[in-house]
Each structure stands twice: as C-alpha cells, then as structure tokens.
Amino acid sequence: MTQARQMTALYSSLRNRFLLSLCAVLCLALLALVAIARFQIMPILLEDEEQYAGGELDRVERAIGSELGHMRRLVEDWAFWDDTYDFVQGERPEYVDSNLYESTLETLDLDLMIFLDAHNQPRWVVGYNGEGEFTSCPGTAPPCDWADTYIDFLQARLEGENEEPQTWLLAKPELAMATMSGIYQSREVSPSAGWLLMVRPLSAPWVEQLRDTTGIDLSLTSIAQDNDVTHDGLERISANRMTASRTVEAMPDDHLIRIDTLLPRQRYQASLETFRFALYWTVGVLVVTLLVVLWLLERIVLAPIRQFSHFTQRMHHDALPPPMPASLLKRRDEIGTLAQEFRNLLDHQHQQSALLLELSQHDSLTGLANRRLFDERLEKAVHMAQASGHEVSALMIDIDHFKLYNDHYGHLAGDECLIALAECMSRHLGRQDYLVARTGGEEFSVLLPDTSLEAAIDHGEALRLAIQERALPHATSPTAACVTVSIGVASCHPSASNNPTALMQAADNALYRAKESGRNRVKAGAAGRQEWTTTPSS
C-alpha cells in the first residue's frame, strides 16, 4: 500500500507529469526525426551527392573540351598558313627543314602531324613511333609505316566529314586528342589543298596537369563498347570516399573513353553532421520555453542573418557594392567573424579579379600588351577615329631571321632578345595613347591613334634605327651583323569603309613587302588603297 501511494503521488505531481510528458514528447520527436532522416533526409543527401559527382564529371568534360578547343585553334593556325598551303601543293621544299623538326612537336606537345594532299594521299608524316623515336618521311614508307593506322582512320573520316575543322578523342591505338582541318590560303579564297591532322597524346603528365587544373583525382581508360564496365556509375567505397565514372565518345566507333574519379564525401558527411547537430539542438529546445527560444532566436540569430542576407541581395542588385553593415562587423561572435571574413573575401576577390584582368591582357615574357588587349584597343581606336575624323595607324614589326637567332644562340638568349627589343619599343613608342603589343612569337604590333601615315612612317623608321643601334649581335643573319627588324606601316582614314581587320591586313602586307625587299626596312601603305610608299633604309 505504501508503495502504491508513492506511485500515485508521483503521477499526481504536475512537475513530474510534465517531466514524464516531456520525456514522451522527446521520445516521439526522436522517433519522428529518425523516420525523417531515414525516409527523407538521407535520400536527399544521397541525391545531392550524386549531383555533386555529376557536376565534377561535367567539369572534367569541360576541361577536356577546352583542350580540344586549343587543339582546334592550333591546327587552324597551321592549316591556314600560306607556307603550309604551298608545301602540300608541292612547293617550298624547305618547309620540312624549317618547320617539321623534333623540337616543333615538343613545343606543341604533339605526337604526330600528317599532311594529306588534295587526293587524300599522305604528303608528309612527322611524329614519334611506338618506341618513342622521332621519324619524318614523305608518306608512310618505312620508317613511318607505323602511321598507317592513323592514315586509314583519317581517310575514313574524310569520306563522311565536311570541310570544317574536326576534333575527336582517340581510344586506339593510344589515348589521344586528334584535330583535323583543311589547308587553305590565308589571303584569298581558294579550294582546299589537302588536310592536316595533329595528334596530342593523353599522356600521364597531361592527365596529371588535368588533375591540377580541375582539382579532381581522375584517370582515363580506353574500353570497348560491348564491355560491361562502360556504364556510368557511382560507388561509395567508404564513409569518406566514392568513385564516379562516365564514358565519353571516342574513335574508333567501337571504343569509348571512361573517366574515373575519386571524390571526397565531405558534402555528405558535413550535411549528416549538421543534421545530427540539429537533432540534438531540437531535443534541447523542447526542454526550454518555446517563447524564450523564439525571442532569443529572433534577437541573436534571425535578425543578423536577415541583415546579412539583405546585404548579399543588395550586392546583386545595386550598381555599386554596398558597405557591410557596421552592426555586423562590431559583433564578436561567429556571425561577426563571418561578416568580417566575408568582407575580406570580397576585397580579395576584387584584387584577384583586377590581377587576372591584368594578366589576361599582357604578355608574361615582355610585359607588353598581348593580342587580346591589342585587338580590343584596335577596335575601339578605329571606332573613335570614325567618330572624330582622325586617322589611326598601326605598325607590324617582325624580327629578321629570329629563327636563325634562336638556333644559334639558344631560346634563353632569344627570350632576352625579345625583352630587350620590347624595352626599346616601349621607350620610343611608350606614349600614353600608343599601345605596343607582342602579337606573335617574334611579331610585335603598335597601335597609333590620331596618327597620320607619314607620322607613323617616321615612328617606324626611328624605331628601326634605334633597334639597329642597339647592335645586338646576330652572327647568322643574312641581313646584318646585328639584330634588325622589318616594319610594315598602315593607316586608315575615317572616311573610308575600313575596319580593324583591314588595317592590320594592310600593315601585314606592308611587312611582307619589307621582307621581300631585303628586310631591315620600313614599308607603308593604307587600308583599302593600292598605293604603297617605302621609307629609305639606312
């Protein structure tokens, strides 16, 4: 009886009943949270993990696509070169000795270059055989018979391809990227003289570079289409690691290339830990008064977060970035730290954006503007000239016999020569409204806004003499005992229907005439005109 009275008194107490009810509520809440985690949260987290893996594979594919784009531009540069056109036509026998040597493949990171004539027959083959030995042959006769596989593949593609440049991934006989383009003259419309194929191996160093670029641990494998492992998939191998794979199309048609990646499960683990923390927090919240919790949550968390969220939304909509709210920066808790770190991150991002813009517009060796910045400023200068009525001129500068200089003194000396000439150009043409740019290996261009053709000729001749007076030794030059330059000058009048391309084409034609006339001289002309003038060379 005494024990029964004690139990009755225990259940009769409101405090105890509340505590018992709270325990029951906590148990029900835990069961509910477990059910939610099992049937809702976990599937969402796993789906998010699959989307993350798919996004990483997409990044790898985009990186490979970007490399294919670089290859396409490379083969177009060679295929739209007049020397290449003449070589495939049977002219310029010196083309092989001048261009098709081993260091060319090393510089371009290529394994193979194949030139086909207009009848799709091999004109020249240069590359590395299966033993890694460099070979260069007129056709596929030994020792270049190893290239027959590529010749057959290329001719098979030509039967069904249009005249546009084509890019592929190769799964056989080795993992590689292949790019093919028709060979055309650059200065006039003409039929294709043949085809040019370039092959770049997907070697271990290249894959390692791709890993560094994407930040993803990946590998590439050639597989047959009827292989069971060709299917895309995601496998969770541990609590912290998973593997994701995807197949991409390749040649020949009966093979594919599979991308295998090893990815961390940090997102999943972080989300799981967050959910567990929320579970514990929810249990604690049930113990305290709901109103107090709501008031504290509003005052300490929700209001600052809303303020921070409003600040981030204004960043997207306002033209000028708004200042970070001072009330957030004054806080000494995690939100204050987050606000300060976010502000520091924004400042760092702005600095990095400015630095990237600077790097993207200048040549890393000479510090001059690069072709991208030159083209932008050229187009702007031509439009401004058309609006103001002033002429705009341009210089195109080429170092005479620079290949001979590199062959004789070495590429390091060649780089020092380029830097010295760049400093000379900047010193003589470094006015604020003039732009000196390195637009090719040994080619420079100068933009001269509001400058007549006569004044541009004077600038070009003064620059030519200044470079000649530098007296940089050039023992193998047929032109002079020192480094010299040939300069093409052109200008366009705003009344003429000219464009930036026409101006630079005129300067290029003038440069060509300077070279044909013996080099170390200045030739000039105007865009859209047939008259040309020549400054005397000294």
TrEMBL record:
What GO CC annotations are associated with the protein? plasma membrane
- Name listed for the protein in its UniProt record: diguanylate cyclase
GGDEF domain mapped to chain residues: 390-527
Q: Where is this region: Disordered?
A: 518-538
| PROSITE patterns the record matches | GGDEF (PS50887), HAMP (PS50885)
Query: Which reaction(s) does its UniProt entry say it catalyses?
Result: 2 GTP = 3',3'-c-di-GMP + 2 diphosphate
> Which Gene Ontology terms describe the biological processes this protein takes part in?
cell adhesion involved in single-species biofilm formation; negative regulation of bacterial-type flagellum-dependent cell motility; signal transduction
- Phylogenetic classification of the source organism: Bacteria, Pseudomonadati, Pseudomonadota, Gammaproteobacteria, Oceanospirillales
Its cofactor is: Mg(2+)
List, alphabetically, the Gene3D superfamilies matched: 3.30.70.270, 6.10.340.10
Source superkingdom: Bacteria
Organism listed in the record: Billgrantia montanilacus
